[in-house]
Design brief:
single chain; 6 helices; CHM4C protein; Snf7_fam
Length: 189
């Protein structure tokens, strides 16, 4: 089997992995390796393009055939470079999509765990019992408030007086004070 057919069909242990599929981490690692390899090839082609451009300039009008050959090679390298740029863009897009899918899968898995935990917590709760408990708490709060109100009110230990009598006594005191003030006033003769 040729290397290309092994690559596309998978061979040996890769075939057994292909049936169950690679893990997201394995796929991401391979995509990163491919990106790295293509980036190195980009750098190589860029230096080759510069070199061919230098050769074309060097030969210029002296040796037109050599200059044209250098420009043709430069064009081929530029074409390869454009293809690699497109391939890199596709691989980057695929890597980002895979990373997002992996993240979404983890988020959904964790949300599922949280839902199961909430279900487990709530399975021992009965809404009727909760309503009864809340009513008991409200009743006890009302009792506590009544007790607090009873304690905070002054006890009437024979301190009850007739308000009309008290008002009359206050008016009498005010009149006495006013009369005293009038005695001390000296009128001009």
């Amino acid at each position: 089997m040729s290397k290309i057919s092994k690559f596309f069909k998978g061979g040996g242990s890769a075939a057994s992995k292909g049936r169950r599929g690679p893990s997201p981490q394995e796929a991401l690692a391979r995509l990163r390796e491919t990106e790295e390899m293509l980036s190195k090839k980009q750098e190589y082609l860029e230096t080759r393009i510069e070199r061919e451009l230098a050769v074309a300039r060097q030969h210029g009008t002296k040796n037109k055939r050599a200059a044209l050959q250098a420009l043709k090679r430069k064009k081929r390298y530029e074409k390869q470079l454009n293809q690699i740029d497109g391939t890199l863009s596709t691989i980057e897009f695929q890597r980002e999509a895979l990373e997002n899918s992996h993240t979404n899968t983890e988020v959904l898995k964790n949300m599922g765990y949280a839902a199961q935990a909430m279900k487990k917590v709530h399975e021992n709760m009965d809404l009727n019992k909760i309503d009864d408990l809340m009513q008991d708490i409200t009743e006890q709060q009302d009792v506590a408030q009544e007790i607090s109100d009873a304690i905070s009110n002054r006890a009437a230990f024979g301190d009850e007086f007739d308000e009309d009598e008290l008002m009359a006594e206050l008016e009498e005191l005010e009149q006495e004070e006013l009369n005293k003030g009038m005695r001390d006033v000296r009128l001009p003769s």
